[in-house]
Amino acid sequence: MAGSPEHYAAHATEHTRFTQTENVPAAPASGEDAPGTSRSAPPLRAEFLNLPPRAGKKAQALSEALERPNINPELAHYAQRVLATVTHSQPTREISNLDAKNLAILVRTYNAKYPGLNLGYAKSPAEFRATLAATHEPSWRSISILDSKGSHRIAIDVRTHDDGRKSLLVMETAQALKRGKNNEPLILNGYQEFISDLNDEFGDSASMAIIDVAAQKSKIGCQQFCLDFTLHAFHKSNFFDDLHQRLHDYGQCFADGDRAEHINGMEYIQGVEILPAIFYKHAESRASIDRVLEKQPDIAGTDVSTNRYGAAETLHERVRAFGIKRDARPYSMSIEASRIRKIREAIESDPGP
């Protein structure tokens, strides 16, 4: 299930199932309404009034973008269904399927916007491995299906080193590693096969570590988080370069117990302890932000706004600005607003049919 990392395997034997309850500055998202912007805007249409104000503005801007001539019909349908859904519920299975169907257009849009991003996508682990073998770019990224029997996606940042060896930093939107009742390691289904197949095919010529970002709590939305993570990894490439070099030189980024755990030779890094604040801009729960700031108190005041013309915005301010309550559950819909903004970006950039 896309964005529904519910299936975990207890290390080696047991299968357990439970539900998930700087250096290169980021370019501004053109047209994004930043905190504190004073430009005049038409009043929100009635259908968007139940959304947080800034999310409502993004939805209205996408609705207005649909009035453009010669829009790609698939993008138009995607936008219409997202707008129809966001007014009353979290993303549905239909939205997840539309995310997947339109991924190629979004990838094309952001590769054009950010030269050097070198973002691709893979519809299966085997397709990703084929791309890994054939690609010799020094730096590139991919959004890949984790498990050939599922639809959960992962973000992968790749480096090709001078000796031809490759290093992979996999960003898991939720958690690849959890602990069971008896403190036994529980590995998200799909990872053991992904790791094993990579080792079988590449051996010592490729090294890999997994970063548990733990920003996603909902069942739908892994692809949207992955797209954001690949963009952040690109904009924070110096930070990632250092991790890749350690992985290449030492086979790991951190010693066991120092912000990471090592199980069966694989390194699982706690993203909340190392990642720049921008990776948690769209975190869906206040608890996730609290955990990040507990581990990295020095980033509490970091500006995560990507609009250079707007006021600064911290992680706590972001989660408040996009807070909404649905089905008696409060959460931040920032990632839903990000989906809306990216669809609009694609519509405004796409030449149409």
Automatic annotation (TrEMBL):
Note whether 4Fe-4S occurs among the keywords. no
Comp. bias intervals (Basic and acidic residues): 8-17
Chain spans, region Disordered: 1-44
Task: Show the catalytic activity.
Answer: L-threonyl-[protein] + acetyl-CoA = O-acetyl-L-threonyl-[protein] + CoA; L-seryl-[protein] + acetyl-CoA = O-acetyl-L-seryl-[protein] + CoA
**Alphabetical list of Pfam families matching this protein:** Acetyltransf_14
- Which ranges does the record mark as transmembrane? none
Source superkingdom: Bacteria
* InterPro entries per the UniProt record, alphabetical: Ser/Thr_acetyltransferase, YopJ-like
**NCBIfam families on file:** XopJ
Q: What family classification does the UniProt entry report for this protein?
A: Belongs to the acetyltransferase YopJ family.
Q: What is this protein called?
A: Avirulence protein
Source species? Xanthomonas hyacinthi
